[in-house]
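Retry 2 of 3 after timeout on previous attempt. Resubmitting structure tokens to design endpoint.
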């Protein structure tokens, strides 16, 4: 995790998602419909945000159902989520 001190307000960040090493999604924070300050302002009206909380905002284009042919994750696949200046989160899809 990073703090607000590590990433300046308004910094342009690139978001990427890879499935088994193949880039499936790619966007920037500039493309977000609602900017971070507005999201935090709204969410704070119904819950208290604490250090370590995660705000989930949706997904950029490129999801599997919208691809031709569709791409679905399956057990054993590796998913990497990368955000500039933050890092990479890697998960393996588990069996049922």
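Retry 2 succeeded. Sequence:
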């Amino acid at each position: 995790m990073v703090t607000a001190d590590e990433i300046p307000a308004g910094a342009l960040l690139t978001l990427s998602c890879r499935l088994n090493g193949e880039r499936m999604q790619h966007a920037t924070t500039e493309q977000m419909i609602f900017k971070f300050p507005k999201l935090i302002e709204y969410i704070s009206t119904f819950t208290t945000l604490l250090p370590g909380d995660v705000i989930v905002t949706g997904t950029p284009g490129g999801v599997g159902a919208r691809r031709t042919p569709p791409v679905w994750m399956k057990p054993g696949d590796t998913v990497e989520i990368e955000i500039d200046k933050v890092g990479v989160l890697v998960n393996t899809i588990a069996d049922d």
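Attempt log closed. The mean pLDDT is 89.
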